[in-house]
Amino acid sequence: MDAQPESGPQSKEPESPNPDPEPYEEIEEDEEPEKDEDLEHEEGEEPKTMTPEARTRKDRANMEALFRRLSTERVPVRVHDVIIKGNTKTKDSLIESEVEAVFRDATSFQQLLRAASLANTRLQDLDIFDSVNITLDAGPPELPGTANVVIEVTEAKNPLTGDLGIYSKPEARSWSLEGSLKLKNLFGYGDLWDGSVAYGWGQTSEVSTGFSIPRFKGISTPLSARISLLSQDWLKFSSYKEQALGLSLGLLSTGNHDLSYNLSWRTLTDPSQMSSHTVRRQLGHSLLSALKYGFKIDQRDSPMRPTRGHAFVSTTQIGGLFPDLRSLRFIRQELDLRYAIPLGFYRAALNFGISGGVIFPWGNGSLNAPSYLPERFFMGGNSSPVCSLRGPTSVLGFKARGLGPAEPRRLVRENSNDGSSSDSGIDHIGGDLAVTAFADLSFDLPLRVFRDAGIHGHIFACTGSLNKLTENAYKGFSLQKFRDSFRSSQDLESLYPPSYSVWSNKIIYYKEDSRCGNML
Amino acid sequence: MEDGGGERERLTLVARKPCFGLPTACPKSLPVYIYLRFSKIPFSLEFNLIHPDSDQIPFVESGDYVAYNNEKGGVIPNLKEDGIVDLDSEVSGIPEWVSIKAMVESWLADAIMYELWVGCDGKSAQKIYYSDLPWPIGKILYFKQVLVVKQLLGITSDNADRREEEIYSRAALAYGALSSRLGEQSFFFDNRPTSLDAAFLGHVLFVLHALPETSVLRSKLLSHSNLVSYAENLKMEYVDANLSSSSVPQSDPSSSASKRVPSHWSSKPRSKAKREKTEEEKKFRRRAKYFLATQLLLF
C-alpha cells in the first residue's frame, strides 16, 4: 500500500516515502510535513487477534518512535535510481536533468526529503505539468541503504492557455489592453511558445511572439528568443514616435547573471512636424545590435515593500558589435543600489537608494556624435523608486520625462496678421549622465481597514540630475555644474535655481500590488 | 552654449547626401540648394543620411523656424510665403512661366522618378539613398520605395511598356519645348534666375551626372546641346564656386570662370566633353571617308 499525498501547484511539502510492503493504513495528508515512514524500518506483522483500536494505537506509537528517531538520528541513505512515469510527450532527459543534481547530493534521509521537495518545486516551475508526485521507494534488496525515487507527472491536458487583461500604467496615466496565448511543451523539451498583444491607448503597443526552453541537449542554461514589433508614442513629451522590429535572444540566465542579445530595426518619425532641433537630427532608421549583461543581487525581504536587506543591480549594454558596422555604436551602463533598515514599529522601514547611468557612443568621431535619443536617460514619472530596479528613471513628483534637458519645439506662425506665434512647447531630449537618489520612510497606517487592504504610507524625498555629455558637451562639464543640475521634488515649481540643499516632504499613499514600478 | 545657439540661428538646408559630383544628389533637394545659391543668401548645408523615405526632407531651418518639403507645396513656396527669399515676384504672374514650371514639376519630375527607380538598374538610387544605412534596412526600404513609385506612376505589369513610352515621350516633348524657349539665353525669363531655373537646372544636373550612361532619359537630354551648356555654365557659376565653404557664393562671374574646378568634379565634364568629341570625330571621319571614296572614284 502506498501512501502518496497529492501535491498541488503551490505545494512545497516533502513527499512521504513509500513504506515497506506491510499492510499499513492509508494516511490522508493535506499540507502538513510528513516524516512518518522509515525505509529501513522493518515492521513485523501484527497478530490478527488485535482489535482495530489496538492496532491503531500500536501504529501511532510506532510512528511517534519513528519521528523521534528521524529527528534525532542521521539515517544514511542514497538514491539508486530515478524512475519517471506518466510522461507521454515530455522527454525523460528533461525531467532527469532538472532533478538529477538535487538527488545526487542527498546522503541522509532528511536531505532526501528536502531534495524531493526541491525537485517537486523545480518540476512545477517548468509550467508544463498539471501535477507532480514524487515518491520514495526502497532500493533493490541486494543494495541496502538505497532508495529509488519515483516521479509521476501528469502532463497538462490542454497545452494551450490564454489570458486577457486591462492594466493601468500610473506613470503614463494610461491604460493598456494585453492578451497572450501560450502553447506548452510542443516538442516535449519543456518548450514554451507564446504570442502576446498589448495595446495602449496613445502610448505603447506591442505584438510579440517568442519561445523559451529550460535546457536543450548539451546546453544546461535556459534559452529564449523573442520577435517583437513595438510602437511607442512620445509625441507629447519629445515629439517623436518610435517603431521597433526586433529579435532578442536570451543566451545565459543563471543565478545572478543574465546575458542577452538584441537585434532591432528602429525608426523614429515625427508626424506632428513640430520637433525641436535635436530630435529632427535623429529622425530616421537605425539598426541596433547590442549585447546586454545584467548582474543582480536582491536580498530584500520583499520587492514591493522592502523592510530589510539590500539589492544591487548592474546592467551593461554594448551596441554596434556586429553584424553591420553601420549599426548604432554605444556603451550604456546602469547601476542601482538599495538598502532597507527596519525600524521595529508599525512595520516601518527606512529605504535608501541611489541609481546612476551613463551612455556614450564609441567609434570614429564619437566625441562629436550625439547619443541615440531613445537610449538616453529620461527622468520623471509617478512610479516609485522603492520597488523598481530599472536604473535612474524615477523621480517622484515630476511628470513623465519632466526632469532634464529640454529644447524648444518648432515655432509655427499662425497668422501673419496676428503677429504673435503660437506656444510651441518643449521637447524633453534626455541626458547622457543620470543620477537619482531617494530616502523613503514607509509605515503602516493606524486604521485596521487600510492595513488589511495593504495600503500603507510613505514619506519620501528624492532628487535627480540629468546632464548631456556628448557632442563635446563633456568639455564644459564640471563638478559645480553637476551639483547645480540636481533637482528635487520640491523644485517642481521653479525650474532653474540650484537645489543642492533642498529636500521635499510629501506624504502619498501606495497600494501594494504586483505591478509596482512600471518602466517609463 | 553660445556657439551652438549661434550655429542654429543660421539658415541651414538639410538635404540628402552629396555624390556624383553634386552638392546634394537627391532630385528634390538639388533645386532648393540651387535656389538658395541663386538668392545669394549665406546658408550652411547639412545632410540626413538615415531617413530616405521621409517626405519632410529637404527642409530649411533657422533657429525655431522650419520650412518642410511636405508643407504648402514645398520648401521654395514656403520660403516665398514666409518672406525669406522670393525670386519670382516679377514673373509669377506670367502665364507662360507658370505653365513651363508646371511642366517641369510634373512631366520631368515623373521622368526622373521613373528613371531612377524603375528605368535604370537602381545603382544610383542605392548609392544616394541607402549607402549609409545598414544592409538589411537599406535593401528592404529600396524595394518598398520601388513599389511606391510604381504605384504613384500607375505602372502595373500590364501597362509597363506603355507607361514607359508615355513618360519618355513627354520628357522628350518637354526638352524640345524648353530648348526652343531657352535658345541661347542664360535664363528662361527676364535674364535673371527664378525658381523655374532652379527646378530645371536641378533636373538637368541630376540627369547628366547621377544617371548612368545607359539611361534613355539622359540620351534624350544630351540631344539638346543648348540645354546642356545652359546647365554647365550655371553650374560653374553658382554651384562649383566655393563648393568647400558652401556659404558665400562668388558674386563676380568672371572670376569664377578662371577658378580652379574642384578635383572630384573634374572627371565628369572631361568625360562628357570627350564623348561629344568622339561623336563629332566619328561624323568627321565618316565624311572624310566619303570624300576620299569620291576622290578615288574620280581618279
Automatic annotation (TrEMBL), chain A:
POTRA domain ranges (all copies): 77-156
Pfam families in the record: Omp85, POTRA
Keyword Iron: no
Region (Disordered): 1-60
GO CC aspect terms: chloroplast outer membrane; mitochondrial outer membrane
Compartment(s) where it occurs, according to its Swiss-Prot or TrEMBL record: Mitochondrion outer membrane; Plastid, Chloroplast outer membrane
Topology in the lipid bilayer: Multi-pass membrane protein
Biased composition (Acidic residues): 22-45
Domain of life: Eukaryota
InterPro entries documented for this protein: Bac_surfAg_D15 (IPR000184), BamA/TamA_POTRA (IPR010827), D15-like (IPR039910), POTRA (IPR034746)
Keyword Transit peptide (UniProt): no
Keywords: Membrane, Plastid, Plastid outer membrane, Transmembrane, Transmembrane beta strand
Similarity remark: Belongs to the SAM50/omp85 family.
Annotated protein name in UniProt: POTRA domain-containing protein
Organism: Sesamum angolense
TrEMBL record, chain B:
Region span, Disordered: 245-284
Location of the Thioredoxin-like fold domain: 27-118
Any single Pfam family the record assigns to this protein: GST_N_4
CDD domains in UniProt: GST_C_Metaxin
Metaxin glutathione S-transferase domain segment(s): 174-233
Superkingdom of origin: Eukaryota
One Gene Ontology cellular component annotation held by this UniProt entry: mitochondrial outer membrane
GO BP term, example: protein targeting to mitochondrion
Ranges of biased composition (kind: Low complexity): 245-258
Protein name: Mitochondrial outer membrane import complex protein METAXIN
